[in-house]
Design goal:
Layout lengths: L3 H14 L5 H14 L2 H13 L1 H4 L2 H21 L6 H14 L26 H18 L17 H15 L7 H20 L4 H14 L16 H5 L2 H19 L13 H20 L4 H23 L11 H4 L14 H6 L9 H7 L5 H6 L9 H4 L1 H6 L16 H14 L16 H17 L2 H14 L21 H16 L3 H10 L4 H7 L4 H10 L3 H16 L5 H10 L3 H8 L7
Helix pairs in contact: 1-2, 2-5, 5-6, 8-9, 9-13, 12-13, 13-14, 25-28, 27-28, 29-30
């Protein structure tokens, strides 16, 4: 007799197809059904969901029901035990893999995170281990009876506590591979791995023994048993090492770990790189492991080839994730379908692009021009910034040339800077802007025929000026003006730029420029205040600032508090943008997401246009 619950579900599916009820009503009914029945009953009814995966992927059901199905499956997985309901958990995972496309971000481990909760427990006390082994040996002597003509099959591997501890300690490295990049942990891993692999190499399994033991196990067990965890009892280690399947489990774990250490993962720390010696050890150990796999019966050669093929395919999947999980569905070639010529669009006039962008990032048609234009919302303040002053002082520019005119330096004439045409051109430009000696007549009306002679004369004056104290400098100026036949009137004295209060006007301008320039860049204090006020809309702000969906998912996983997520996002954005992380760009983004009041409160009523 057919299950009445399945009949009811079939009726609901047909009703949706005939537009007699809404699609969401079907999935709400299924979710409530699985929430209210027992697990063994869920196992039976879930077959209905599995068999109709093609129906759920159609356009009429998929968009409205994918979230309901995902939530329903996750609720079931929370109720199930991974160790007792292993098969049912696997069926649910396979159903989700068939339902959603490969590029679905919610089903991918984009951050390459590990299941750190999977801890393998074992006996860590040597005295308990010795006591258990002694009891095991006494039990074998008293209870085991070997018939005449038969040989007891026992492992020839000498098992002690050190081997037991090192063997199960390797599971912690398989659980958390990142610790292999640490020097101390790497040495420990190499020591334990070499001893375990040497143990496998020294004791090779016999195909006859393995086949006979497997046959006896099949006779004794009527059903298959699944274990999600290793059994770490010290009484079982010698039997486990003699089991071919157990060996393969551990050896494949080694190969998976080696592939992760050598692969390029998108979110891996840049400092996590292996040295040449570590790469050599991994290569030698991998060859040793494949040798053991080929020698392990049954069908060792085929098994080793299959594992090698799977690992190569896994490398392709890793590259696919690093490239952003592009869709495998090929798009149609639109160029072949276009038969009607496109309408001629009106050419935009100059300035229309600037008008339509408004307070957003203004595009200038070139990446570098766009970056320069949007560095600062106030162009005048940007032009006054001290960073734009590329002209050196006279003292800095002529410092090396002044040292070269000293005879004690022993610099030959041909190697002096005054003979360099580039230096001579720059020197003339600088002297014309910043030195009164450029316009002064030469002493005694002497004539200078070459440019190096003129620069030597000027550098001599500059050297005398740089070495004199202020009092000596005034005295030197009076003497020089007397010797130059009254030409001192042509040389103007430096202007006094102090105002009535005695404050230097140049200093005032520089302070003002510095304050203007520093006010354009965001600070850590502003980001903290902003994160607390915009925490509800931080995802909208992240999209407006140009962050990708993957980055937003990453920020969501950093903390459970919205304010902390927002602060993390703003901090990373400011570090990446550098000089482009300005008050103007942030104010524009806040206006775009509808938080104009917050922008005015934090940054004032300043204009956000450049």
């Amino acid at each position: 007799m057919r299950d009445p619950v399945v009949k009811l579900l079939n009726l609901a599916v047909n009703a949706v197809k005939n537009d007699q009820c809404s699609t969401s009503a079907l999935f709400v009914m299924m979710s409530d059904l699985f929430d209210t029945i027992k697990l063994d009953r869920c196992d039976d009814i879930f077959s209905f969901v599995e068999d109709r995966v093609g129906t759920w992927k159609t356009e009429a059901f998929y968009n409205a029901g994918k979230n309901y199905l995902l939530r329903m499956c996750n609720d079931l997985l929370r109720r199930l035990s991974k160790s007792q309901n292993t098969v049912f958990c696997g069926r649910i995972q396979l159903f989700l893999a068939q339902l959603f496309p490969l590029e679905e971000k919610s089903g991918l481990n984009l951050m390459s995170q590990f299941n750190l909760e999977n801890v393998t427990l074992y006996n860590s006390k040597p005295e308990d281990y010795d006591h258990s082994v002694k009891l095991l040996s006494d039990e074998k002597e008293t209870k085991m009876e070997v018939e005449e003509g038969e040989m007891e099959e026992a492992s020839n591997i000498p098992i002690d506590y050190n081997l037991y501890r090192k063997f199960w300690s390797l599971q912690d490295f398989f659980r958390r591979p990142a610790q292999c990049y640490e020097k101390v942990s790497w040495k420990t891993f190499v020591n334990y791995a070499d001893e375990v692999l040497s143990c496998f190499l020294s004791y090779k399994l016999d195909d006859v023994k393995s086949a006979r033991r497997k046959l006896e196990q099949l006779k004794e067990a009527s059903t298959h048993m699944y274990f999600a965890k290793y059994l770490t009892s010290e009484k079982l280690l010698d039997l486990q090492l003699s089991d071919s399947n157990f060996r393969r489990y551990v050896l494949v774990q080694f190969l998976i770990l080696f592939q992760y250490l050598n692969s390029q993962v998108r979110f891996k720390n840049p400092s996590q790189v292996l040295t040449d010696d570590q790469n050599v050890w991994i290569k030698v150990s991998a060859e040793k492991i494949f040798t053991i796999l080929r020698e392990t019966p049954p069908d060792g050669e085929k098994f080793a080839e299959g594992i090698e093929h799977i690992l190569n395919r896994e490398e392709n999947w890793n590259n696919w994730k690093n490239e952003g999980c592009a869709s495998y569905i090929r798009k149609k070639d639109d160029t072949k379908l276009k038969t009607i010529p496109a309408l001629r669009t009106r050419k935009q006039s100059i300035g229309e692009d600037l008008k339509c962008n408004g307070p957003k990032l203004i595009k200038m048609g070139n990446a570098e021009l766009t970056r320069l234009w949007n560095l600062c919302p106030d162009n005048m303040a940007a032009c006054k910034s001290e960073k734009r002053n590329f002209l050196p002082t006279v003292e800095e520019f002529f410092e090396e040339a002044v040292e070269q005119i000293d005879p004690s330096g022993g610099i030959e004439e041909q190697y002096k800077l005054v003979n360099n045409p580039t230096f001579a051109w720059k020197a003339l430009r600088l002297l014309s802007h910043k030195s009164p000696y450029f316009f002064a007549q030469l002493q005694g009306g002497q004539q200078i025929k070459t440019l190096p002679q003129y620069l030597d004369h000027m550098i001599g004056k500059l050297a005398k000026e740089m070495q004199l104290t202020p009092a000596d400098e005034a005295k030197s100026d009076v003497e020089e003006s007397t010797m130059e036949n009254g030409n001192a009137d042509a040389e103007e004295e430096p202007l006094d730029n102090k105002d009535d209060d005695g404050r230097d006007e140049g200093t005032e301008v520089e302070d003002e420029e510095e304050s203007i320039a520093s006010g354009n860049l965001l600070t850590k204090e502003i980001l903290v205040q902003l994160s607390e006020r915009v925490c509800e809309d931080w995802k909208k702000l992240a999209v407006e600032l140009g962050l990708d969906e993957d980055e937003i998912i990453y920020f969501e996983g950093t903390s459970t508090e919205l304010a902390d997520q927002a602060l993390k996002m703003l901090t990373i954005w400011m570090e990446n943008e550098g000089e482009k992380a300005t008050v103007g760009s942030m104010q524009a983004a806040l206006v775009e997401i509808g938080r104009s009041a917050l922008a005015s409160e934090l940054f004032g009523e300043q204009s956000i246009s450049p």
